[in-house]
């Protein structure tokens, strides 16, 4: 049974690419582009009803939502020890971090809309860009504090909470200057040093969305 990841380079589907590599599963990667309408094709909408990336075909199922895919993979492949089941002392911390990754990611999505996806750049609101970048920066403060106490999202070590949050932190670097977050920078160095992260990066592909490394309203 083949495993197929529906993917956009540099998008949330990287979470799944990375987690699959941690589990030594190499999927067939089907790449999409937001701007060309391919996410709205009925064949893709049948797999992901809001036309969102990622969707994963695995074990004869099709699953959408990166958090749901992550939990499914952890539950069905417990031998890798990357999830925390009900009753585990780290269960609550695991769930909090899994979902906090989307608190960060939805702020990034708002900034992506402003900077990348508006058809007419003149419609971009400098006020909203500044406000959302400040809110994104504020959402990183608890992660910086957490990494002052421990090396990973969970005190016990690497888990799928890292593949979820790690992606959000990497993507935040497009809109927030990280010089004020040295612990997050050191954490990202540790994450990118993982062999599975390097393998996932090799499969990820060039971004077909971003034309700059950093986006900021001037003055
Ligand atoms: N909560 C969903 C969010 C999925 C999502 O919004 N993905 C973005 C890419 S990172 C997407 O497909 N955007 C396409 C669009 O907005 O049309 C998840 O974690 O899977």
Could you give the topology of this structure?
Blueprint: E1 4-7, H1 13-22, E2 28-31, H2 42-45, E3 55-58, E4 61-64, H3 66-76, H4 91-117, H5 126-149, H6 160-172, H7 182-192, H8 195-204
Parallel strand pairs: 1-2
Antiparallel strand pairs: 1-3, 3-4
Helix pairs in contact: 1-3, 1-6, 1-8, 4-5, 4-6, 5-7
The protein binds glutathione.
Pattern of helices and strands: EHEHEEHHHHHH
**CATH A-level architecture of the largest domain:** Up-down Bundle
The percentage of residues in β strands lies in: 5-15%
Distance between the termini: 54 Å
| Average pLDDT metric | 97
| Total domain units | 2
Instruction: Tell me the total number of β-strands.
Output: 4
Poorly predicted regions are: none
Report the CATH C-level class of the largest domain.
Mainly Alpha
User: What is the number of helical segments per DSSP (H or I, 4+ residues)?
Assistant: 8
Rounded radius of gyration (Å) = 17 Å
SS content category: alpha+beta
Helical fraction: 40-55%
Oligomer: single chain
């Amino acid at each position: 049974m083949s495993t197929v990841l529906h993917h956009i380079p540099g998008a949330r589907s990287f979470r799944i690419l990375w987690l699959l590599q941690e589990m030594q599963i190499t999927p067939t990667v089907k790449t999409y582009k937001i701007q060309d309408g391919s996410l709205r094709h009925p064949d893709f909408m049948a797999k992901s009803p809001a036309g969102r990336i990622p969707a994963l075909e695995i074990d004869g199922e099709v699953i959408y939502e990166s958090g749901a895919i992550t939990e499914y993979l952890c539950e069905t492949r417990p031998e890798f020890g990357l999830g925390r089941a009900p009753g585990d002392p780290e269960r609550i911390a695991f769930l909090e971090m899994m979902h906090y990754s989307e608190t960060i990611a939805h702020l990034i999505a708002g900034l992506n809309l402003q900077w990348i996806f508006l058809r007419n750049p003149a419609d971009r609101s400098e006020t909203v860009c500044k406000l959302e970048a400040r809110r994104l920066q504020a959402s990183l403060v608890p992660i910086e504090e957490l990494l002052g106490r421990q090396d990973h999202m969970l005190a016990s070590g690497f888990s799928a909470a890292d593949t979820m949050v790690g992606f959000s932190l990497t993507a935040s670097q497009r809109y927030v200057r990280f010089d004020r977050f040295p612990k997050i920078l050191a954490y990202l160095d540790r994450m990118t040093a993982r062999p599975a992260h390097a393998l996932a990066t090799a499969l990820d592909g060039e971004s077909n969305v971003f034309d700059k490394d950093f986006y900021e309203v001037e003055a």
